Amino acid sequence: MDAGTLHNQIGAVQLHICSNDSGFLRKFRNSSLQCISKGFALDVKLLSKGICNSKHGKVRVTYTSLCHASVVDPALRTSLSANDYNQKPSIESSLILIRHGESLWNEKNLFTGCVDVPLTKRGIEEAIEAGKRISNIPVDIIYTSALIRAQMTAMLAMTQHRRKKVPIITHDESEQAKAWSQIFSDETNKQSIPVITAWQLNERMYGELQGLNKKETAERYGKEKVHDWRRSYDIPPPNGESLEMCSQRAVAYFREKIEPQLQSGKNVMVAAHGNSLRSIIMYLDKLTSQEVINLELSTGVPLLYIYKDTKFIKRGSPVGPTEAGVYAYTKSLALYRQKLDEMFQ
Amino acid sequence: MASAVFHQTIGNLLSQQHLHNSGFHQEFGNVSVNLISKGFKVYTGLSISRKGGYSSGKRNFSVVQGSASQTSVVDPLSTPSNDSKNGFQKKSSEAALILIRHGESLWNEKNLFTGCVDVPLTKKGVEEAIEAGKRISNIPVDMIYTSSLIRAQMTAMLAMTQHRRRKVPIIMHNESEQARAWSQIFSEDTMRQSIPVITAWQLNERMYGELQGLNKQETADRFGKEKVHEWRRSYDIPPPNGESLEMCAERAVAYFKDQIEPQLCSGKHVMIAAHGNSLRSIIMYLDKLTSQEVISLELSTGIPMLYIFKEGRFIRKGSPAGPTEAGVYAYTRRLAQYRQKLDEMLH
Q: Which residues lie in coiled coils (chain A) (predicted)?
């Protein structure tokens, strides 16, 4: 498709290669190629980002600055200013937020907070359903809290994912843990999705209410006090966190660790809890404290955001597979879905 | 069926409490009741039918006449034996030990060497865990030990969703002061309905060193079939930078003897959810196998194994029958009673 004739020009060439194998939509940005042969003219066919047709890779080549004769070290990227093509393709990545489903203490109406309580049968089903809804959305890296109900939700959801990459929980708690969990095959690494667990994504810590029955607590402390603790922004339960305190550590973590991933084009999934996710959404949607208090997140229903040009665009909840109409949120996501379909034909 | 007629004796009555739906505080524990009325005689009857049926009678009392003393009133709740919550009579030397090997993981499916890489379960692995749970749904569990790998932890949590006793497994966090403080529970009642879950790297799968992530076929091509066979099936030859089965056994059995066996000694029923090699190692210890025998030992995935720990010995009881399998049978009388209690509880 591309006749490559390179003129006697030396320049830095930006390659955008889409390969169909395990790299999938891997983007090789900014590789420099030194073209020094005579008599070749580069026939450049500009393809918009992300289009890969099945069998052959398509190469998009862009000339940057034109200079003569001097050999440019291929590894050097020349300045990307001198052309009319938008050098830096717009970085677009997807962000999925999933709140875990019913836990055994939800069922018993006990305040849970950071107590590590697992999912009920229903919570398991909710996780699997959530997985079906996101089965066509790319995921490169997963963040969860340190609590099993969020981790299980992520793992169960990913059993439904059509891309069939393997989530691998990374272990950092000790030198031995790190050493013992090493993978020795590049190929296998490429088919892996790192899963990072972080206490900063834990549910709001509920202090001395943890384990107490909601009704009992109302009787003991009075309905109003309990309502204050549960629904205010900045009043913590005894020895616990307020929503504000929870936000502080959750959003700090998001900005420090997760946002850079999105910035570098990685598609991220965050499986966490009601309050840690509300905190993050408060940041993504720029909500006021009043607004965030009233924000209710459905359990097990994933929320999609598109991160583009450092902005977060809310895209609602991906439809379930049985719901009428398959539609894509962005062109890139549509193409990704198409690739998955082709992969499974 | 127990007609209770009380004589004029004062003694300790050990009675098994009748369980009600709304949760009960004493789990088949011992309650001392002070009898001071005249004219009653207690009729005891234990009915366990061996074949299949359980009498769904109302109340079975097993009564033991303790010392006959006069007039002093004993506080019903303050006897030391009150606290044994293990489904058996006071200070029982009998405890159940369940071993479950997790089911299919995503790398099993792809035929990759897994070792200590933290790979989760497949859909099939999830189903296996649930099936395993059904098989042990009537066997008491007071404590759970798992490895630090998600596939074993998920197996335990999925299995316990099927348990009829409906206690709540709670994973213990000890990794930092904050983790410990943040996971505290502030209700006694809630704690009594909880099953502590302890995660331990010592129960991890055998660490496979430089083979982790490699394809089994590829590895055979690269290193030669024989070498790979040695690493996989010998007792003491480790893969490069990995553990031999012997090394794995050393840390797994040490942990078992140190941490788990004392629980069994104190009458706690324990479930261990772990991996092929860590469990084989433990079984080697329980059944006193030779290294030759343990090499040939294959553990089915997702099929729980039951041992009864009694008087310092481990009695192997095989795999509990699935709920659909013909014939319900109890392994010991106490387990039969536990099952009966659950039946009564859930009516």
A: none
